[in-house]
Write a structure and sequence with these properties.
Blueprint (H helix, E strand, L loop, with lengths): L1 H4 L2 H19 L9 H13 L9 H19 L7 H16 L1 H5 L3 H23 L5 H21 L3 H24 L7 H21 L6 H6 L1 H4 L10 H27 L5
Helix pairs in contact: 2-3, 2-9, 3-4, 3-9, 4-5, 4-10, 5-7, 5-10, 7-10, 8-9, 8-10, 8-13, 9-10, 9-13
Length: 271
């Protein structure tokens, strides 16, 4: 059993998928199905890493920021304030600089400023535009699946197994969330408990993979386009499974492009 649980495909794929599936169903009546994202991510952290704080490495910062953002997103579902979107985006941008701070400090000042600003812009952008989907569960589900799989696949090719599992866990959890909607032909509750941790963890993971691995920075441009691609017009009269399918195809094209660009630079994954 332990050998089975240690398999990367289980840690970053099957386990978060099952955890998200169960969580989305259990919390549906509380309108907190979006917690499926953080449940899937937490299972992967438990199996592939740990929840230690000391030493507070960059990957552990991502873990605790992700968990905190999931709890914050659930709390914000009670308070509807128009300024939450820009506030969360600015906070996420600051978190990006904090996560990569030790790496940035090892670079010349001018270069560090450029990379820090780029990371802040990328993470802030993702949080801002994913937040625009927090009341559109089908679009958020499709975007989340593509963002997780694209970020995880690119990070894995960029020679970072742990960061790759972080991203793939998000993609697997979002896939479970989307699958329930496709089968039931009924939307699930979404909210910031889904969009905030997903966009924050994916953004921070992508930035750290650029700073410490071989993920090219321009691959992040395609990942940044995913929330916008999820806004592609589809008829509300269509069956929900058809809407999900079409939106998934559009967003996965962006994710596949990011993975391809990374493959061109880094080559085959480290197996």
């Amino acid at each position: 059993m332990q050998e089975w649980l240690n398999h990367p495909a289980v840690q970053g794929g099957l386990a978060p998928f099952v955890a998200a599936l169960v969580t989305a169903e259990l919390f549906q009546r509380l309108r907190l199905s979006g917690l499926a994202i953080i449940a899937g991510f937490a299972v992967t952290v438990y199996l592939a890493s740990d929840f230690s704080i000391d030493p507070l490495t960059a990957s552990r910062k991502i873990i605790w920021l992700g968990i905190a953002s999931g709890l914050l997103g659930a709390a914000l579902s009670v308070f509807n304030w128009s300024l939450w979107r820009p506030i969360l985006s600015v906070a996420a941008a600051c978190a990006a600089v904090w996560v990569g701070l030790r790496v940035l400090q090892q670079r010349p000042f001018g270069e560090a400023m450029q990379w820090g600003a780029g990371c802040a812009l990328f993470v802030g952008w993702l949080v801002f535009w994913m937040d625009d989907l927090h009341d559109a569960s089908v679009r958020a589900g499709s975007a989340g699946m593509a963002l997780g799989l694209g970020c995880g696949g690119a990070a894995l090719l960029g020679a970072s197994a742990l960061l790759g599992q972080f991203g793939l866990a998000l993609g697997a959890a979002a896939s479970a969330y989307l699958l329930i909607q496709m089968i039931s032909n009924s939307p699930l509750p979404c909210g910031r408990s889904y969009t905030l941790p997903l966009s924050l963890i994916a953004g921070l993971t992508g930035c750290l993979a650029v700073l410490t691995a071989r993920l090219p920075w321009y691959a992040l441009l395609l990942l940044a386009a995913i929330p916008l691609a999820a806004k592609t017009p589809v008829s509300e009269k269509w069956a929900l499974w058809l809407q999900s399918l079409l939106l998934s195809v559009v967003t996965l094209v962006c994710a596949a492009g990011a993975v391809y660009l990374t493959w061109r630079v880094a080559g085959a994954p480290p197996l």
